[in-house]
């Protein structure tokens, strides 16, 4: 399979290359690194831009040259300059052409360091991609030869397919799986009248339900399950221990267009506050992977 | 293959005449633009029909929506002949343009063609003309848009923007705000890297054709042969003068040539597409003009704003057809403005790369890959023009600039046949040298009847451009710095 990497034609963004190399190495896949530049206009009065188009091509080739120099040599990769109306459109075009398993993009430039920020390019991708999209946190960096060490899947009590799909991917690339839930409980200045303890027990109850739901989905009583608690999403995500080689998997919302990636409000917040790379999986794709995994295990059993 | 002598680079400045005549070798251009890179996107994918439609789409812009108010008072109902005359000249120039576009293998502007064939100084003059064809016409187009906006507002809400902020000073206003707003809307889109796709382009063509068809069909109800009785009140001179004004509405026909490298069988399809587009466009223009002049007396055209909408309203007595037409005009003129501002910034980009104007103009924003500084400066200047200069003058300046640029292109065809007879050409003008000579003569014929003020201002503008060349361009020319 092939992963498509969106590389900014200004040649910035090492993080995306680090992430792409790590993912490709783990999955034994190859990369298509593409730099998207504005497309020429249709024949007409605007067709006086040959010199401009040539400059775009040159800049993009230069950027890809830098990408080539930076990408570790053990990862097979090809490079492509694409003329498209927008960066997301170009990346999606390539993804469709090569039947990509994953799209890898970098963070927005304005994001805070160390966190995943969704820029206009990745936001559009997240809304229209049929394949999972991986986003690198700002300044993402791994050691040479690093692989995915653990897959953490965000689980909110429903959408078990994603957990199953993540488990099968984790098994395929030979890493451990961890299910993470996030309990965000802002402490209000007043209580609902039942007292802090009662509210606390609601939370405990929720955690218990989530845990058993995840175990049931995985048919595995020993699965690692963690719950991050905090007063806001940042705190809740930090509450969980992260290490190098971690990847967080988030599912798209069921309210989005069928089979496409659309982040619900909770998923969006998880993505924003994640200190590790995030893979956003469209609901339809998660279902496919889950049923593949199910039929594979039936066959094996 | 190089068609010029190697550049002279001894430390003392080369002779002025050598500087002025130095040409950009075609080989360099090919290399710069990657025009013959392997497997690039220059696949021959465009057929005759599609190419013809590109021509129709690029040509029918703003002109026909606004030009009658200026042209009919000059020629009377004989304005129909002015359309035919302007169309004929436009056709000749477009065919010459096609030969140059095919001989110089870059899909650049006539500035690039002139640089490759006639030398640096002439290229600068062409560049000055292109600033009129693009920058000044963008201003004119935006002013035309503001007229239709006002018309639509009036029809829908009974509200018009006061003259003070929707008219140029000469027309009793202070500053045309809606036109400037349009320019900045387009600029914002361009800064974000927006582009027009072939699909949007096709939709725009359909909208334009649709509203013009609506005008002809509905406007026929107002047919009154009496209005045609005094057919040519100002005689042949009037027809000529109107042709000069009308030429504006044929700009874009040459754009067919820029698709040369993507066209199946260009030798056959390029001229056929140019002629086909010309026939279609002229037919539409003449149909619109006949209906318009039969619907109201010549005097009524004078100063009429958003003319086609106003006529429909007069003819039908109801506002909805006028509103539909105005809405169509607003949408399609928006896209014309976008295209023209884009074109202007990219021409400046090419000139800047050649060292003819400061580097400022080819600086790209690394994220959006658009020339942000240049786009903003261009928008400021166009805004100023659109705000204070009346529409007829803007259109006449556009016409004269385009005519001179085309004339130079036609001369370029003749020069290149002499200097590089063996250069492979994708397309050759038929009936050489009649067509280029006819094209040159046609351009001069139309230019001579433009208003004196237009010709003077043009002469001053060209002198400014040449002065710029003497003080800046020839010293900074990238070509002059090439070490052999």
CATH superfamily of chain B: Amino acid/polyamine transporter I
Order of helices and strands of chain A: EHEHEHEHEEHEHEHEHEH
What is the percentage of strand-forming residues of chain B?
under 5%
Helix content of chain B: 55-70%
Q: Tell me the major beta sheet of chain B.
A: none
C-alpha geometry of chain B? globular
Biggest pleated-sheet summary of chain A: 10 strands, mixed
Backbone structural class of chain B? mainly alpha
Please give the number of β-strands of chain A: 10
* Total DSSP helices of chain A: 9
Can you name the CATH architecture of chain B?
A: Up-down Bundle
Question: Termini of chain B, distance in Å?
Answer: 16 Å
Q: Give the CATH class of the largest domain in chain A.
A: Alpha Beta
What is the residue-mean pLDDT of chain A, rounded to a whole number?
81
**Stretches with pLDDT under 50, minimum 5 residues of chain B:** 34-41
Sheet/helix structural class of chain A: alpha/beta
In CATH, what is the class of chain B?
Mainly Alpha
Q: Radius of gyration of chain A in whole Å, from Cα?
A: 21 Å
What does this structure look like?
The complex is a heterodimer of chains A (301) and B (484). Chain A is α/β, with parallel strands linked by helices and 301 residues long. Chain A has 2 domains: 1-147, 3-Layer(aba) Sandwich (Rossmann fold); 149-301, Rossmann fold. Chain A contains 9 helices and 10 strands. Chain A has helices at residues 15-27, 50-70, 87-97, 120-128, 160-173, 195-218, 233-238, 265-273, 283-300; strands at residues 2-6, 30-38, 77-84, 102-105, 133-135, 150-154, 176-184, 224-230, 246-251, 278-281. In chain A, helix 2 links the parallel strand 2 and strand 3 (77-84). In chain A, helix 3 crosses helix 4 (120-128) and helix 5 packs across helix 9. The two termini of chain A are 26 Å apart. In chain A, 45% of the residues are buried. With 484 residues, chain B is mainly α. Chain B has a single domain (46-478), classed as Amino acid/polyamine transporter I. Helix content of chain B is 66%, strand content 0%. Chain B has 19 helices and no strands. In chain B, helix 17 (391-419) packs across helix 19 (452-476). Chain B is globular and about 70 Å long. Chain B starts with 15 loop residues before the first helix and ends in an 8-residue tail after the last helix. Classes of the chains: A alpha/beta (301), B mainly alpha (484).
């Amino acid at each position: 399979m092939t992963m498509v990497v969106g590389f900014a034609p200004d040649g910035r963004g090492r993080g995306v290359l680090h992430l792409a190399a790590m993912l490709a190495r783990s999955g034994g896949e190859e990369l298509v690194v593409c730099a998207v530049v504005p497309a020429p206009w249709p024949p007409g009065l605007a067709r006086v831009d040959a010199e401009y188009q040539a400059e775009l091509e040159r800049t993009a080739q230069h950027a890809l040259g830098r990408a080539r120099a930076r990408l570790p040599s053990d990862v097979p990769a090809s490079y492509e300059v694409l003329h498209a109306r927008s960066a997301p459109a170009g990346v999606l075009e390539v993804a469709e052409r090569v039947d990509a398993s994953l799209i890898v993009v970098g963070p927005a430039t304005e994001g805070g360091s160390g966190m995943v920020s969704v820029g206009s390019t990745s936001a559009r991708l997240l809304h229209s991609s049929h394949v999972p999209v991986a986003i690198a946190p700002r300044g993402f960096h791994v050691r040479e030869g690093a692989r995915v060490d653990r897959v953490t899947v965000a689980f909110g009590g429903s959408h078990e397919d994603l957990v199953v799909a993540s488990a099968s991917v984790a098994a395929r690339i030979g890493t451990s799986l961890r299910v993470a839930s996030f309990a965000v409980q802002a402490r209000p200045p007043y209580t609902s009248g039942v007292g802090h303890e009662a509210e606390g027990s609601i939370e405990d109850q929720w955690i218990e339900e989530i845990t058993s739901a995840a175990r049931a989905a995985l048919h595995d009583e020993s699965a690692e399950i963690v719950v991050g608690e905090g007063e806001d999403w940042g705190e809740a995500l930090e509450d969980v221990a992260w290490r190098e080689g971690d990847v967080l998997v988030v599912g798209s919302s069921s309210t989005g267009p069928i089979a496409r990636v659309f982040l619900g409000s909770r998923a969006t917040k998880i993505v924003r506050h994640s200190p590790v790379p995030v893979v956003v999986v469209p609901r339809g794709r998660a279902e496919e992977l889950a049923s593949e995994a199910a039929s594979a295990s039936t066959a094996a059993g | 293959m190089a068609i010029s002598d190697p550049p002279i680079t001894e430390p003392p400045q080369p002779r002025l005449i050598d500087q002025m005549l130095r040409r950009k070798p075609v080989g360099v251009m090919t290399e710069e633009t990657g025009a013959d890179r392997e497997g690039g996107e220059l696949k021959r994918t465009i057929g005759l029909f599609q190419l013809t439609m590109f021509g129709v789409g690029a040509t029918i812009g703003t002109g026909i929506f606004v030009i009658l108010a200026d042209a009919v008072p000059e020629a009377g109902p004989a304005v129909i002949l002015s359309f035919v005359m302007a169309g004929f000249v436009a056709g000749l120039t477009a065919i010459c343009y096609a030969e140059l576009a095919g001989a110089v293998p870059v899909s650049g502007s006539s500035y690039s063609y002139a640089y490759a064939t006639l030398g640096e100084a002439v290229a600068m003059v062409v560049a000055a003309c292109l600033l009129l064809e693009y920058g000044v016409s963008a201003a004119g187009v935006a002013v035309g848009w503001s007229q239709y906006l006002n018309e639509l507002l009036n029809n829908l809400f009974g509200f018009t923007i006061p003259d003070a902020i929707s008219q140029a000073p000469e027309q009793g206003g202070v500053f045309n705000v809606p036109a400037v707003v349009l320019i900045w809307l387009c600029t914002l889109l361009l800064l974000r890297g927006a582009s027009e796709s072939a699909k949007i382009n096709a939709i725009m063509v359909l909208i334009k054709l649709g509203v013009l068809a609506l005008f002809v069909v509905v406007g026929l109800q107002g047919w009154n042969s009496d209005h045609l009785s005094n057919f040519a009140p100002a005689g042949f001179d009037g027809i000529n003068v109107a042709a000069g004004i009308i030429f504006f509405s044929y700009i874009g026909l040459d754009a067919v040539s820029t698709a040369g490298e993507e066209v199946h069988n260009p030798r056959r399809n390029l001229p056929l597409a140019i002629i086909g587009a010309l026939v279609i466009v002229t037919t539409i223009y003449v149909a619109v003009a006949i209906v318009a002049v039969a619907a109201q007396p010549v005097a009524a055209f004078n100063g009429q704003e958003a003319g086609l909408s106003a006529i429909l309203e007069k003819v039908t007595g109801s506002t909805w057809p006028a509103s539909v037409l105005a809405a169509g005009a607003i949408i399609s003129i928006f896209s014309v403005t976008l295209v023209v501002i884009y074109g202007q910034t990219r021409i400046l980009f090419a000139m800047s790369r050649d060292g003819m104007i400061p580097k400022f103009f080819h600086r790209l924003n690394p994220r959006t890959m658009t020339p942000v500084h240049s786009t903003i400066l261009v928008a400021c200047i166009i805004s100023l023009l659109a705000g204070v200069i009346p529409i007829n003058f803007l259109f006449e300046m556009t016409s004269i600039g385009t005519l001179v640029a085309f004339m130079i292109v036609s001369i370029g065809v003749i020069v290149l046949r002499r200097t590089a007879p063996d250069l492979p050409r994708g397309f050759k003008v038929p009936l050489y040298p009649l067509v280029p000579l006819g094209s040159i003569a046609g351009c001069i014929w139309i230019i001579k009847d433009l208003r004196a003020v237009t010709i003077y201002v043009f002469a001053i503008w060209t002198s400014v451009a040449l002065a710029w060349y003497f003080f800046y361009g020839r010293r900074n020319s990238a070509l002059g710095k090439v070490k052999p």
